[in-house]
Amino acid sequence: MLLGNEIIKEAVQKTKQYLKAKEIEKAVEVSEQLPAQRLAKLLRNFSSEHIYSFLQHLPKDRILEVINGFAEEYAAELLELMPEEERLKYLSKMDSDEVVDILNQYPREKQEKILEDFSRSKREEVENIASYSEDTVGAFLEKDFLSVISGNTIENILSEIKNLSETIEHRSYVYIVNKNNKLLGVSSFRELLFADKKAKIDSIMTENIYSANVEDPAIEAAQRLKARKLKLLPVVDKQERLVGILSMETAVELLSNEIAEDILALSGVSGEESFFTKSGLSIKMRLPWMIGNIFLNLGAVAVISNFENTIAQVAILAAFLPMITDMGGNVGIQALSVSIRSLALGEVQIRDIKRAVVKEMKIGLVNGLVLGAVFAVVAYFLQRNLILGFVAGIALGINVLVAGVVGGSMPFIIKKLGKDPALMTGPFLTTITDITGVSIYLGLSTIFLLGLL
């Protein structure tokens, strides 16, 4: 395994070296050792024109695999460089859901022009997926699955699967439908192999299977697929007709994007923003959150101003303030990230808030005691003041406890209110931990002022 990794690393370095030197043929030869996804990742470091020149020397199937490895914005930019006929050829071979993602990067007029050149069946398939709201399962449908009519023998089905082996990617399950395409049941490919070949598929299929509706939220369907450890999730319309599947790969991508968007939102960055977003639009997305943070932080400023006399008499108190507030913020973000990730993956529900609070209280008590004790010792040795060490340690310990509980529970509360926990929790969390830390620290300092002088 180590040897394989070394070969890939060497191939990456050589391919990059030849590309920079514009020795395209050598780059193509070395890149044959790289998986398409890894090659796509490497190519993203070069301009679209440079990549297009390189791709022209690859086998056609390899080109499609590499393009599929790019983000839709980048793939659209690359396809734009191709002659119209060549672009149409690659788009026609892509899965319809991927085509929709790429077409959405073009102006409406260009989308319609490309659709006009598709075959009738391909166009209808793409338009059907595009008609669904982008946050529903229908927008992520895949047509690459196996389905058979009820009453077929297992022998006939296996023969059919063998003939389709090169065109159907998802072969883990075989879905059984009636003549109207209504979903009746499912059988795994493994069950088919070990069953009586003369028996009918109905005798071994599992009925009352779990499915998603095309209008269901895509994230919820992805969470259910993951929770049930399925490889595919059948998708039906209002008449319970099988119209497609949601694959594990797509579900993982949806959940990963959801988590990434939530993490971005913690910093006040929109999940809709990407590397390709125009600078002006990025400013428009980020600036309101930064302005909002100014007003939220006025709460901490107000608290500090009330203890102005205390700070004036013991100036060293101000030196420890950032450490106390920053530690509370760091602990809070840890708890917040775990809660938001668990909610995004469907591992927990809103009703689990009590468990979240209890867990964070246990963690906060231990972490608060340890961190508070360490900080108290550090503060004492820096200033040789036992009271200062005591005050600083107590303030840090309590702030760590509060930050953990707030960070771990607030996403549940905000989600229950129907709001986005990632967008709203971050600013509130930092403000609460700042005010808590400052209030406790300076409050105790005021009480023990004589001991600090």
From TrEMBL:
It is found in: Cell membrane; Membrane. It is a multi-pass membrane protein. Pfam families: CBS, MgtE, MgtE_N. CDD domains: CBS_pair_Mg_transporter (cd04606). The keyword DNA damage does not apply. The chain crosses the membrane at residues 287-305, 311-333, 363-382, 388-414, 426-450. Gene3D superfamilies: CBS-domain, MgtE N-terminal domain-like, SLC41 divalent cation transporters, integral membrane domain. Its main location: membrane. GO terms for cellular component: plasma membrane. The keyword Methyltransferase does not apply. One of its GO terms (molecular function) is magnesium ion transmembrane transporter activity. Keywords: CBS domain, Cell membrane, Magnesium, Membrane, Metal-binding, Transmembrane, Transmembrane helix, Transport. Residues 205-261 form the CBS domain. Acts as a magnesium transporter. Homodimer. Belongs to the SLC41A transporter family. This is Magnesium transporter MgtE.
